[in-house]
User: Which sequence fits this backbone?
């Protein structure tokens, strides 16, 4: 009887896959259309020019963000330009040679140096040497919070104590109280993997989300705290907070258009959390909202090929939803929330 029931369940599951999988697949971009870390329409020309060793478009772009106080865009563009310069830095060298005190060039230089130091076996020592470089970037643009995001990352890597961290955090929020990048940097410092705990991480993220402006990505900061806890394995003591964080991030995601590149990373983090909680239908809906915009984070932390991990996760959600959707209906509801043993990585 047990064997018969197991066979029957397997047959029903297969029938559901055959019936529903094509419909669910059609709602998602084809695998070949999904790209990793796609630059927006402002950044793309700067990267093309940088590939030709021309720094002028990048310089104009960052100057615009600084003068208009577009701090969120500025942070993203600096990080992406530094990533490009990691392997092709001729354009940055030309820029610095022509205008060595340019605040935007100094900021990209500091971001690049911090990244390289983080990858060094002698990370703490290398990072300590970069203090003057970060100071120069902050002094060159006193209103800019982005150097203070770098300073917070620097503090984490150099094992700075909580008093140092709090002083840097005060400087960051003085310049921009709702800067997403600085909040993420602070959250990392407070995580259990570094100098805090899962409880501290959630406390900080939830309070920041409560204080955030409407539509701010900071409203999804608790999902980053949930990801940090889920990443360390099994036995999660804050399951209710993890699910509440996912609910809050879902609400934020719904405020943005489908396929919008701006919340793409938040949505990528959210689908990871939903998959780990076995909330298959909601995960698939978020994959639909993500569209073709896969992001390196969080997938670089769970596999060597982030795009392949993204596609595998999307396929897992699609197949699970197809397998659990009744044969006589295509309506979707929550597939359920998992317990501590749930795992997707």
Assistant:
């Amino acid at each position: 009887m047990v064997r018969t029931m197991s066979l029957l369940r397997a047959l029903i599951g297969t029938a559901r896959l055959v019936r529903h999988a094509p419909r669910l697949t059609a709602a998602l971009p084809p695998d070949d259309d999904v790209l990793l870390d796609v630059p927006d329409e402002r950044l793309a020309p700067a990267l093309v020019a940088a590939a030709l060793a021309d720094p002028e478009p990048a310089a104009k772009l960052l100057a615009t963000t600084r003068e208009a106080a577009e701090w969120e865009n500025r942070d993203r563009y600096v990080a992406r330009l530094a990533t490009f310069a990691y392997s092709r830095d001729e354009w940055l060298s030309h820029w610095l040679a022509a205008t060595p005190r340019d605040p935007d060039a100094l900021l990209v230089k500091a971001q690049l140096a911090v990244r390289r130091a983080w990858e060094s076996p002698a990370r703490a020592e290398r990072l300590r040497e970069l203090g003057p470089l970060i100071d120069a970037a902050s002094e060159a643009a006193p209103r800019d919070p982005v150097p203070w995001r770098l300073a917070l990352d620097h503090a984490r890597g150099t094992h700075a104590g909580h008093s140092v961290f709090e002083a840097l955090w005060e400087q960051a929020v003085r310049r921009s109280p709702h800067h997403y990048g600085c909040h993420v940097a602070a959250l990392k410092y407070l995580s259990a993997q570094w100098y805090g705990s899962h409880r501290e991480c959630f406390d900080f993220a939830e309070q920041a989300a409560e204080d955030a402006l409407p539509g701010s990505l900071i409203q999804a900061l608790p999902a980053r705290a949930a990801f940090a806890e889920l990443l360390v394995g099994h036995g999660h003591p804050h399951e209710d907070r993890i699910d509440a964080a996912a609910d809050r991030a879902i609400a934020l995601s719904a405020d943005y258009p489908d396929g919008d590149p701006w919340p793409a990373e938040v949505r990528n983090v959210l689908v990871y959390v939903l998959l780990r909680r076995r909330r298959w239908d909601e995960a698939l809906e978020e994959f639909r909202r993500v569209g073709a915009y896969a992001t390196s984070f969080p997938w670089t932390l769970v596999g060597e090929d982030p795009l392949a991990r993204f596609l595998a996760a999307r396929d897992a959600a699609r197949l699970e939803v197809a397998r659990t959707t009744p044969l006589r209906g295509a309506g979707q509801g929550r597939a359920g929330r998992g317990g501590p043993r749930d795992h997707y990585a």
Remarks:
- The longest strand covers residues 35-36.
